[in-house]
Design brief:
single chain, alpha+beta, eight-stranded mixed β-sheet, seven-stranded mixed β-sheet, 16 helices
Length: about 475
């Protein structure tokens, strides 16, 4: 990205002043090095978002921002429904409610390393992964509707998971306002055999060791100590979410002119929040959020079963579960006035600060856990939301390392078998049904996750708590 087109606010905050077509300025949170490595498309997309009706305050991009569909991945924007604000399927993304959940294990590194290969095998055998992967759960129409209404709560009621998980899940495991009737028969069909599966792409289940603590007090509140072993699960709403995004994007493009919306990019197709189309999409999107929450809860149940085969006394308690592809109705302070806004986070994680009423009692004083996925060969991080973040970008932070090359470019540079062997030489076991998929997700295809989270902390978006490195990665 051409840094000369940006106005430097600080070492990690950059502003693009609003031109004649922009309703608000654009703001990018990143170090100079990350800015220089960003695709010029990020500049174009973050400014295009600022042209959408009803946008409030600014269009934001997180430190891991890269080119996406319409919105940049790592994009955050809020819209006021009373000012003609819109909802955009491209601003949510195709993998609706893709997110991360992290589990405590109570196991030591020595215990895991003594059975590392056996644990990798049992996890891989027990949890379906890969393109088009299906599981042992097959939903009929009645069950599908109940799942889309109930989310993780539905999964637990079916015997997949524990009720104690719910307080540690965003929306307490069930997104209100879901409308399964707005989910097409084809979208439902795509999902009927995919519950409890990781899918492909950058999704994973990873066994990780805590190698560094940055903030002792917050780490204690989160139940994290150096030397702990954690398990993180990264996946979303699978085929159902993708189909919803595909179908509603087409409808929004076709209807934009009827609503008097001039799109700066067809990929930014949107509809007024208060319109019939906007409300229909909200109902379908919320149903997809519940699908993702149910999916991660089922995978958690399968993970517990797998781990207990080798470690019967292990207690896999949930630290937190948070999504990074959503649009949520939230209350935020805008120039001293509390407003109900619709906050789009696409490849951006909610990062509520200490004291927020939506956080569970045990975590409220520390702030929300912010779960940042890295690559299978580098590191992941746990951060905490800050009070400062609430005023910076609606309580939002980065979601991962962020790609710095396309999947096609990655497969030209790396071979899956080579990546697997290189990581094995470093003591990291990879299990995947697709060597091509491993090549696409090679660590070198991503930005430096440490630089990303350091920028997020310097900007005040979130506070560093712990660094985790991989021991086992089940890759989709």
């Amino acid at each position: 990205m051409d840094i000369n087109k940006l106005h430097r606010i600080s070492n990690v905050e950059w502003k693009i002043d609003a031109d004649a077509g922009m309703h608000v300025p654009a703001v990018i949170f990143a170090s100079e090095e990350l800015i220089l490595d960003m695709d010029d498309k990020v500049y174009q997309q973050v400014t295009n978002v600022a042209r959408l009706p009803g946008i409030v305050k600014a269009s934001y991009a997180m430190p891991d921002a890269h080119w996406g569909y319409g919105f940049p991945i790592g994009g955050v924007a809020a819209f006021d429904p009373t000012q003609g604000g819109v909802i955009s399927a491209g601003g949510v993304g195709f993998d609706i409610s893709c997110g991360v959940r992290t589990l405590h294990t109570g196991l030591s590194i020595d215990q895991v390393m003594a059975s590392q290969r056996a644990l990798a095998d049992v996890l891989y055998q027990h949890i379906p992964a890969g393109l088009g992967s299906t599981g042992n759960i097959h939903l009929n129409n009645k069950q599908m509707k109940a799942m889309l209404n109930g989310g993780a709560l539905w999964a637990i009621e079916q015997g997949y998971g524990e009720h104690s998980d719910l307080e540690r899940i965003e929306e307490h495991g069930c997104m209100q306002g879901a409308d399964p009737d707005q989910v097409s028969p084809f979208a439902r069909k795509r999902q009927q055999n995919e519950m409890g599966t990781l899918g492909s792409g950058n999704h994973y289940l990873e066994v990780q060791k805590v190698v560094e603590i940055f903030h002792d007090e917050t780490a204690r509140a989160f139940g994290i100590q150096q030397g702990d072993v954690k398990i993180s699960i990264h996946c979303g709403s699978r085929g159902l979410g993708h189909q919803i995004g595909t179908e509603f994007l087409k409808q929004m493009v076709a209807s934009a002119q009827d609503y008097g919306i001039k799109l700066p990019d067809r990929e930014l197709a949107c509809a007024p929040i208060q319109s019939k189309l906007g409300q229909r999409y909200l109902g379908a999107m919320r149903a997809a959020i519940n699908c993702a929450l149910a999916n991660r809860e089922i995978i958690t149940h399968l993970t517990r079963e797998a781990v207990h085969r080798l470690f019967p006394s292990a207690k896999l308690e949930l630290l937190y579960d948070v999504s990074h592809n959503t649009c949520k109705q939230e209350q935020h302070d805008i120039d001293g006035e509390l407003k109900q806004l619709y906050v789009h986070r696409k490849g951006a994680t909610r990062a509520y600060g200490p004291g927020h009423p939506d956080l569970p009692d045990a975590l409220r004083d520390a702030g929300q856990p912010v779960l940042i996925g890295g690559t299978m060969g580098t590191a992941s991080y746990i951060l905490a939301g800050t009070e400062q973040s609430m005023g910076l970008a609606y309580g939002s932070a980065c979601h991962g390392a962020g790609r710095n090359m396309s999947r096609r470019q990655a497969t030209r540079q790396w071979h899956g078998g080579q990546v697997i062997q290189q990581l094995a030489d470093r003591g990291i076991i990879i299990r995947s049904p697709s060597k091509r998929g491993v090549a696409e997700e090679a660590p070198g295809a991503y930005k430096d996750v440490s630089a990303v989270v350091n920028s997020a902390e310097q900007a005040g978006l979130a506070r560093l708590v712990a660094k985790l490195e991989p021991l086992i990665c089940i890759k989709g």
